[in-house]
Amino acid sequence: MILGIPDPMILAAYLLCFLGAVWCIVYGVRHWNDTD
Asked: Which end of the chain has fewer surrounding CB within 10 Å, N or C?
């Protein structure tokens, strides 16, 4: 039981959601002023 979450699949879903949000922020900052 990690962080009070009994099911590892729920923990994996939270982790993927968090990593996806971090990826979106990083991608947005890197491509902020791209002119295409």
From this structure: C
